[in-house]
Amino acid sequence: MRTRPVDALARPAMPAAPSATPTPARTTKRVTLDLDHADHRALRLWALDAELDASLLLRALLALAEADPAIRSRAEALAEALAGARRGGDR
């Protein structure tokens, strides 16, 4: 069968419609962490030494805090101390 010139210009068939199953939402969220130069350097050096991405190290710290109430409590106490230092200490 010979192709007619009109057939050569026809649009190709559309692919089958996607399934009705919804696509799951992306499960990660981006967080910005402000670090001073010394803390940023410490995190980068730690990541290089561990041969891991810094984000994986931070996720691991979060997982530790979620799994261990003692670590969580220590992290909260340190965060409060850091916040106090940033405000200039208790007045």
Structural commentary:
With 91 residues, the protein is mainly α. The chain has helices at 5-9, 37-50, 54-67, 69-87. Helix 3 (54-67) crosses helix 4 (69-87).
**Average pLDDT reading:** 84
> What oligomeric state do the depicted chains represent?
single chain
Q: What fraction of residues sit in β-strands?
A: under 5%
Radius of gyration: 27 Å
Number of strands: 0
User: What's the helix count?
Assistant: 4
Main sheet summary: none
The percent range for helix content is: 55-70%
Which structural class do the helices and strands define?
mainly alpha
Spell the H/E element sequence.
HHHH
Low-confidence stretches: none
Shape: elongated
Distance between the termini: 92 Å
